[in-house]
Amino acid sequence: MEKNNVENRDQWGSRLGFILAAVGSAVGLGNIWRFPYMVYENGGGAFLLPYFFAVLTAGIPMLVLEMGLGHKMRGSAPLAFRKIKEKYETLGWWAVLVTAVVTVYYSVIVAWAVNYMVFAVKQSWGADPNAFFFKDYLGATGFWDFGTIKTNVLLGLAVVWGITYVILYNGIKEGIEKASKIFMPLLIVLLGVMVVRGVTLPGAIEGLNHFLEPDFSVLKDYNVWVSAYGQVFFTLSLGFGIMIAYSSYLPKKSDVVNNAFITAFANCGFSFLSGFAVFGILGYMAQAQGVPINEVASGGIGLAFIVFPKAINLLPGMNSFFGILFFMSLVVAGLSSIISLVEAFTSSIMDKFKMTRKKAVSVVSLGGFLCTIVFATGLGISILDLVDHFLNNYGLAVVGLAECIILGYLWKLTTVKEHVNSVSDFKVGNWWDISIKYVTSIVLGYMLIMKVKTELTVAYGGYPTSALMTLGWGLVIALLVLAYVMKNISWNEDVLLDVNSAKEEI
Amino acid sequence: MTAGAIGMLIFGSTILFGGLAVCLNIAMKND
């Protein structure tokens, strides 16, 4: 029975397919709108030193850990942790439940980008993209006024969830792998065109100087190092259970270590290139408006939906073309991440309840779409901002830290190390153990303490206490309780046989 | 571009794309 369970599991058709899907998962909106601004704000090119150090001492080791765990245990995060010890299953569920909520609001941002692709045709945002975005497009309100449901946003969401549903419904090889083989080359082409356009605009060089000119004095500031570790942790899809699920679909004799290195380098290379497109265009924008670059430089939603529409208005020609291209790159980067987020949750449901893929994908996609409706209201952007803040800081970071502690201290880390070294092109040495047990644990622990300290001093975003307690702390705790409930639901007998035989092997 | 910016451009590209090229080369040899 155990054999059937493992052998019936979907598999990637090729190593390239797995790598493209893993890179697609890691490359997302943050690569385009977060990394370049973070470099600019933290000492320019000097930030690359702590960033690369963090990639080597936290990003790649954690990728190897998650990929190795998924490959060895051949299961989604809850199943993989259950195979280690029954009580650790809660951590697996917490990871994928956080992932499920992140998917819901992440899909909203991609839906906005879908709408903006259409708006770019005629630059419908007009001369004041800020007012257009908040007032006309979102009809933004404050807590607890939900306003009205915006049809455009709802249509965008239907497109995003429809595409996700079709891809996941077709499985790993025919769905995710085929989609990744289209999305990733397309994204590289889109980014290539944006980079060439960006760096050839007048004023672009000034923008690139601001992006890369190093200020090495920042290296003495430990906050810059912590920011680098934070960026690395969030950019590589760690703590979501995605890499555990994706690697569980690899054939038994598949490389893990080199695949993790390739995924990390490709993802960070994409971020680095994005900086040239973003700061080339920002440099042009600053010159065209006759203002210093710090007046136009920004990150996040503001960069994508306010600053860039302004920049598109100012382009010397082919404004619609480059507008569509920019928002299309956001859509493609976002979609390739969404399919991985949904897959991490769907595979957990499939494992736990022995549900067929078609049924699980249908239930999760419909449920996900219905949950996103609240984000199409006027209150949507405030809820998104609040939930994102709490889940990123106290959901994913805690999952990452718990992974390091459980696998590094309470279990035998050497089990994963021996496994990955037995199947990989090259092996990990003691540096890997040190990175997981000490470097990543200490940095994530420190980050968490600092965040909680700030949280207790200043109310995030000036939101009312009722919102912070329900959609912030309340949600984080509710997901933890739900994870515990999920852990206590009985597994299918066939899966338990598989779990028990895995425990004997360990 | 300033010398500092060019230096960091070369440094970043070498680490990221050089690293990627080495890993891809190993993967292709072993496949």
Instruction: Enumerate how many helices of chain B there are, as a single number.
Output: 1
Extended strand count of chain A: 0
First-last Cα distance of chain B: 41 Å
Largest interface: A-B, 25 and 22 residues
Secondary-structure-based class of chain A equals mainly alpha
Q: Provide the succession of SSEs of chain A.
A: HHHHHHHHHHHHHHHHHHHHHH
Brief digest:
Chain A has 506 residues and is mainly alpha-helical. Chain A has helices at residues 2-7, 15-26, 29-33, 35-41, 48-73, 77-84, 89-122, 129-137, 151-169, 171-199, 204-212, 222-235, 242-248, 257-289, 300-314, 319-353, 357-372, 380-410, 413-423, 430-457, 465-488, 493-505.
Structural write-up:
The complex is a heterodimer of chains A (506) and B (31). Chain A has 506 residues and is mainly alpha-helical. Chain A has 22 helices and no strands. Chain A has helices spanning 2-7, 15-26, 29-33, 35-41, 48-73, 77-84, 89-122, 129-137, 151-169, 171-199, 204-212, 222-235, 242-248, 257-289, 300-314, 319-353, 357-372, 380-410, 413-423, 430-457, 465-488, 493-505. Chain A is globular, with a radius of gyration of 22 Å. With 31 residues, chain B is mostly helical. Chain B is 90% helix and 0% strand. Chain B contains one helix and no strands. Chain B has one helix spanning 3-30. The model of chain B has no long low-confidence stretch (mean pLDDT 95). Chain A binds chain B through residues 15, 44-46, 48, 52, 205, 208-209, 211-214, 255, 258-259, 261-262, 265-266, 268-269, 272, 425-426, and chain B through 1-2, 4-9, 11-13, 15-17, 19-20, 23-24, 26-27, 30-31.
